[in-house]
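> example.struct
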């Protein structure tokens, strides 16, 4: 197969997706790599119908890569993930509205162009977690204890006091200082834990942990709602149960066993089958309900089948 990966500067030395690219090449597939933001790209030649079996995106939020992926989709090329799914989670304000509208456990979310505007929120809702709506990798995530600390140095505002983009704020969810990160590799779910960026002093050993049925259900529903196949979900275990605080397309898949081989195989199947491959993943997971449950994966948790109009693939 012939694949094209869009990889931005931040990930040029990252194991994911570079190791996936090496694995696919080792399996005999042709993989072209484009570096948006780092090199000249002749898009009229690179993006042509039939030029590749699929395009795969690994870029920062707000980077130029997503536009190129959308251009590939516009001429009928299969994309991994679906471009509409990526757009829906890259904008954290939009993702919060979509998720809450579908009944997923997401905190109440406020949006503003400047951090001081969050001072209008009732003080009883503080502390707030404030972050850029287009942020990634924990960039500029800040815990604000009281309204008078919204403009303290180190926040999301630039040196001139402007945020440089939309900000979101959510009431802080009391937790142990450990984030639960659940990865989905085309229907197979893996739970891991890591230190929260809001509690860097809290020592947490990154490791795979058992996946509870409730967290598995929430994660699977996110895949169905947004139309994602390869994604990660950040979950906090708060006093009222699991709360979703972030969704990422094509994450690092850290602590997932045999992550490179699993992700590589998923990319190939999605590329090979397009929309049919995505339906096959959903069917496979539903059919796995009778399999013996594993404490670490959620292959036995049925993932709601998505309508063809919302799953994309080859168009």
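> example.seq
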């Amino acid at each position: 197969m012939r694949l094209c990966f869009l990889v931005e500067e931040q990930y040029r030395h990252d194991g994911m997706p570079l190791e996936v690219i090496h694995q696919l090449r080792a399996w005999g597939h042709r993989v072209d790599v484009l570096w948006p933001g780092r090199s000249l790209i002749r898009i009229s030649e690179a993006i042509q119908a039939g030029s590749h079996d699929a395009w795969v995106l690994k870029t920062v939020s707000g980077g130029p890569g997503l536009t190129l992926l959308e251009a590939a989709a516009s001429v009928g090329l299969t994309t991994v993930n679906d471009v509409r799914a990526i757009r829906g989670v890259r904008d954290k304000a939009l993702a919060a509205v979509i998720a809450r509208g579908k009944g997923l456990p997401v905190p109440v979310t406020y949006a503003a162009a400047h951090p001081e505007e969050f001072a209008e929120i009732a003080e009883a809702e503080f502390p707030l977690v404030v972050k850029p709506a287009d942020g990634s990798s924990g960039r500029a995530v800040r815990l604000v204890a009281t309204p008078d600390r919204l403009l303290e140095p180190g926040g999301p505002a630039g040196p001139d006091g402007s945020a440089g983009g939309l900000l979101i704020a959510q009431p802080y969810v009391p937790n142990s200082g450990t984030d639960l990160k659940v990865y989905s590799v085309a229907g197979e779910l893996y739970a891991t834990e890591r230190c929260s960026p809001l509690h860097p002093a809290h020592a947490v050993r990154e490791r795979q942990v058992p996946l509870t049925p409730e967290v598995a259900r929430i994660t699977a529903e996110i895949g169905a709602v947004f139309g994602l196949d390869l994604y990660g979900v950040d979950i906090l275990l708060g006093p009222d149960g699991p709360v979703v605080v972030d969704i990422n397309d094509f994450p690092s898949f850290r602590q997932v066993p045999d992550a490179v081989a699993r992700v590589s195989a998923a990319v190939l199947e999605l590329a090979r089958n397009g929309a049919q491959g995505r339906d096959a993943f959903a069917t496979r997971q539903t059919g796995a309900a009778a399999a013996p449950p594993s404490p670490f994966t959620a292959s036995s948790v049925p993932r709601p089948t998505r309508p063809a109009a919302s799953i994309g693939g080859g168009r």
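> remarks
DSSP finds eight helices and 13 strands in the chain.
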